[in-house]
Amino acid sequence: FGKGAEYFDAFIEGRAYKEQVSFNDPDCSIADCETFFEKNKRFLKSLVIDNCPQLSKITSHYIIQIEQLSLTNCPQLNSLFLSNVGLEAITIKECPNLDLLDLTGNKLTHLDLSGLPELK
Fold first, then answer.
1. Within a domain: residue 91?
2. In a domain, 119, yes or no
3. pTM for this predicted structure
4. Does residue 120 belong to any structural domain of this protein?
5. 105 with 86: CB under 8 angstroms?
6. Which Gene3D superfamilies match (predicted)?
7. Helix (H/G/I), strand (E/B), else coil: 82
């Protein structure tokens, strides 16, 4: 999933899955993101996305349970719908087009938002 990705594999019944992922890939396409989320949505606990200029949305369709999320420098990101996914900590920085944010029903203990001029 992009040349800038770092994967931290975990194992269940001998099968590897991605529990924590950190990536920085300016060439990552929306299709790449959707494919990755679809394959790992049941297991993903921590996700760091930095410098993904084509990423435009993230929904709970792709992430059904996650504890930590960090999004930085995603200029096309305009919507983030992650209600009832178990989110405890989120950081969103320098995503200037983000104007829709739904985090209802989570267990947030940490919220760090900056560089979001369109968010109301």
1. yes
2. no
3. 0.79
4. no
5. no
6. Ribonuclease Inhibitor
7. coil
